[in-house]
């Protein structure tokens, strides 16, 4: 098939590469500043595991090409795949409205964008209302983006489940055919109405965020009860009714898509006239949790942080990402600046984004080496759980830091081990 994928999102690039790898002729439409345009320059800034290699391979094989976002689909295209940013809903309608009058009777529009609930049905109405077009031709289906940054490509080609929202039977069957190469181990497609698929995606992220915030609340309570939250986490996870996923307390979640989906769910509830008390509380807990390490540091030094040198390991909102959207590190750094602290940061990938966010400042120093960031520090805060931070040279850290104080925002270090190594340790509900 000839497929036109529109969007600058990670989802757009993963979908385009994966679909091309199964033999489709795919055109990826991106804006002039889209990272896909840098694919051949060696400066492909989105370091999603395996993605750049697969995209380059498909370009060499002639199955994938990258063109402008403003370019209309090739006349041979029979699948229009929308993986647009949430603020481009109007552009999505414009694309559908501009489709030729004589489209194939089974012309398919796949909406993978995170638009408000009901957007797929609205796009269907736009398609049917094109002047001179046969309203029986074409269909719009919802296939929500369930990808996780850092494992997005694997999440597409080996998806645990697909949500497919289709009101028209042939459209659902055609989506199943497109996804067939990625749906061989077992039938992972869950069929439902479009708005049910859209809402399910928001509800999934709402539930995950709720679990995280609940565990953060429990970790904060564990601190006051002299309880080790790790023992509690293991006990809860052993209960099959609960399970182990998303029970790790920490210093808050970030990320553009995840945070946006939770906020979108809260907004959807509010606009429906219902009280979004639980989701709003989840968001509030998360924002408070981003300052958890700061509060521990502030109390440790009896509120005197002026002139202190504080090292931070990890600025990205999650490992394997170069992005800092809503990252806990941003709120933490801002709080430290407000108290007159000097902040030294190391991150394997996110330093350029952090530099762009902060601008030129004397109280922020970025380091390419984690030990240089920690040298002479009065405290070291671990904020993003990059694997390289899990087993550092603690003897070197102890020798080079001004004060051997560790604040573990992801509970990756063993409290007993680092205390025996001579450190003062604070975790999230750890003892």
Automatic annotation (TrEMBL):
Domain UDP-glucose/GDP-mannose dehydrogenase C-terminal: 311-415
Reactions catalysed, as given in the entry: UDP-alpha-D-glucose + 2 NAD(+) + H2O = UDP-alpha-D-glucuronate + 2 NADH + 3 H(+)
Superkingdom in the source lineage: Bacteria
Pfam families: UDPG_MGDP_dh, UDPG_MGDP_dh_C, UDPG_MGDP_dh_N
Pathway given in the UniProt record: Nucleotide-sugar biosynthesis; UDP-alpha-D-glucuronate biosynthesis; UDP-alpha-D-glucuronate from UDP-alpha-D-glucose: step 1/1
InterPro entries in UniProt: 6-PGluconate_DH-like_C_sf, NAD(P)-bd_dom_sf, UDP-Glc/GDP-Man, UDP-Glc/GDP-Man_DH_C, UDP-Glc/GDP-Man_DH_C_sf, UDP-Glc/GDP-Man_DH_dimer, UDP-Glc/GDP-Man_DH_N, UDPglc_DH_bac
Keywords linked to the UniProt accession: NAD, Oxidoreductase, Signal
EC id: 1.1.1.22
Secretion signal span: 1-20
Family: Belongs to the UDP-glucose/GDP-mannose dehydrogenase family.
Protein name per UniProt: UDP-glucose 6-dehydrogenase
Species assigned in the record: Halopseudomonas formosensis
């Amino acid at each position: 098939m000839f497929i036109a994928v529109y969007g600058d999102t990670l989802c757009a690039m993963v979908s385009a590469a994966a679909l091309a790898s199964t033999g489709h002729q795919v055109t990826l439409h991106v804006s002039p500043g889209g990272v896909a345009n840098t694919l051949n320059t060696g400066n492909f800034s989105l370091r999603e595991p395996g993605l750049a290699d697969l995209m380059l391979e498909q370009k060499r094989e002639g199955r994938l090409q990258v063109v402008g976002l403003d370019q209309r689909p090739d006349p041979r295209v029979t699948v229009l795949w929308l993986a647009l940013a949430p603020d481009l809903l109007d552009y999505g309608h414009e694309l559908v409205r501009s489709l030729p009058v004589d489209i194939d009777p089974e012309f398919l529009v796949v909406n993978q964008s995170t638009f408000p609930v009901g957007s797929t049905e609205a796009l269907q109405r736009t398609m049917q209302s094109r002047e001179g077009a046969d309203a029986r031709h074409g269909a719009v289906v919802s296939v929500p983006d369930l990808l996780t940054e850092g494992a997005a490509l694997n999440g597409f080609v080996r998806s645990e489940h697909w949500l497919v929202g289709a009101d028209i039977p042939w459209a659902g069957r055609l989506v199943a055919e497109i996804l067939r190469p990625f749906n061989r181990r077992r039938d992972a497609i869950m069929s439902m109405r479009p708005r049910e698929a859209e809402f399910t995606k928001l509800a999934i992220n709402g539930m995950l965020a709720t679990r995280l915030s609940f565990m953060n609340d429990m970790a904060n309570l564990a601190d006051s009860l002299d309880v080790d939250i790790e023992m509690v986490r293991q006990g809860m996870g052993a209960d099959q009714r609960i399970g182990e996923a998303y029970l790790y307390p920490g210093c808050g979640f970030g990320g553009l898509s995840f945070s946006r989906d939770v906020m979108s769910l809260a907004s959807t509830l509010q606009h429906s006239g219902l009280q979004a008390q639980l989701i709003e509380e989840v968001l509030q807990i998360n924002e408070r949790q981003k300052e958890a390490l700061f509060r521990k540091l502030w109390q440790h030094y009896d509120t005197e942080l002026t002139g202190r040198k504080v090292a931070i390991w990890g600025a990205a909102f999650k490992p394997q990402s170069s992005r800092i959207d809503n990252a806990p590190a941003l709120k933490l750094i801002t709080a430290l600046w407000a108290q007159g602290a000097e902040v030294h940061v190391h991150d394997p990938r996110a330093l350029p984004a952090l530099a762009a966010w902060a601008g030129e400042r004397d109280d922020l120093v970025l380091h390419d080496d984690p030990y240089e960031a920690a040298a002479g520090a009065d405290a070291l805060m671990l904020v993003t759980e990059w694997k390289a931070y899990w087993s550092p040279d603690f003897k070197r850290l102890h020798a080079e830091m001004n004060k051997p104080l560790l604040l573990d925002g992801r509970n990756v270090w063993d409290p007993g081990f680092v205390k025996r190594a001579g450190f003062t340790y604070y975790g999230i509900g750890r003892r």
